[in-house]
Amino acid sequence: MTYNEWLLKAIEVLNQINPTENGKVDALVLLQHATGKSRTQILAFDDTEIDEKVRLKLTALLDRRLKGEPIAYILGEKEFWSLPLNVSKGTLIPRPDTEILVEKALQIALEKLEENPPHFSILDLGTGTGAIALALSSELSPLCQKRQILLEIIGIDLMPDVVALAQSNAERNKLNVKFLQSRWFENITGQFDLIVSNPPYIDAQDEHLHQGDVRFEPLSALVANDAGYADLRHIIELAPSYLNSNGALLLEHGWQQGEKVRSIFQENHWEMVETVRDYGDNERVTLGFWKK
Predict the structure, then answer these.
(1) What is the per-residue pLDDT across 109-167, written as a single tens digit (0 to 9) for each?
(2) CATH of 3-68 among 3.30.70.590, 1.10.760.10, 1.10.8.10, 3.90.25.10
(3) What is the 3-state secondary structure (H, E, C) of the chain?
């Protein structure tokens, strides 16, 4: 069987199982992963014969995808903010919508760095793969180094194996971020200029938990009590104790949760509360500033 023959067969099967997905993209990615060849090489030499060992590997990979397992878990990696990240079944798969959180955090950070402070610190709560913390580090480190500003970015997660995964991503991308084990603020000391988080915010009864990629992701990283608001509320209530004056908290949340999250910020006396929309024009990130 050649590259082209396998691709045609895989695309047909994938499209039959889920016509709404792009079977060609998935098939090409799986073939690249199994052969170690680039997309260009595969398409240019599509009459190349696939040896038995690779064919068996492809069969196993395709079977996993047909069962709905996300491509990121099959490959063991996912790109976020142009950074290649290792992923595992113990972490959420980084999503494009979360880049909105990074964009807004960068905007606030850059405004604060215009004052040339000697030190600038960021805390990422529930870091998972480390995607947010590492994206911020990749953008801010060169600027801080140039201005001789000491940049400190800390990411925390509850599970030790997830902390180790995030650390491996820092090493893979050669970025200076410190990852620690903690249940939210429990093991955290000190003050920060920015706190960011993409915490669990889905209601346990939400029907979407049984659909698509989410079926394979850890419930502990998805579901929160109080109809999905418990962790958001916990962070909003405790964050002031860990922020410098005029520090900011940015939280990702569900597309229908903006109004409620804003009200929780306001109940807890945050200032300049606002919600930012994602690329699909849905309310996705709410933030506030703390004045001491």
Answers:
(1) 999 999 989 999 999 999 999 999 999 999 999 999 999 999 999 999 999 999 999 99
(2) 1.10.8.10
(3) CEHHHHHHHHHHHHHHHCCCCCHHHHHHHHHHHHHCCCHHHHHHCCCCECCHHHHHHHHHHHHHHHCCCCHHHHHCEEEECCEEEECCCCCCCCCHHHHHHHHHHHHHHHHHHCCCCCEEEEEEECCCCCHHHHHHHHHHHHHHHHHCCEEEEEEEECCHHHHHHHHHHHHHCCCCCEEEECCCCCCCCCCEEEEEECCCCECCCCHHHHCHHHHHCCHHHCECCHHHCHHHHHHHHHHHHHEEEEEEEEEECCCCCHHHHHHHHHHCCCEEEEEEECCCCCEEEEEEEECC
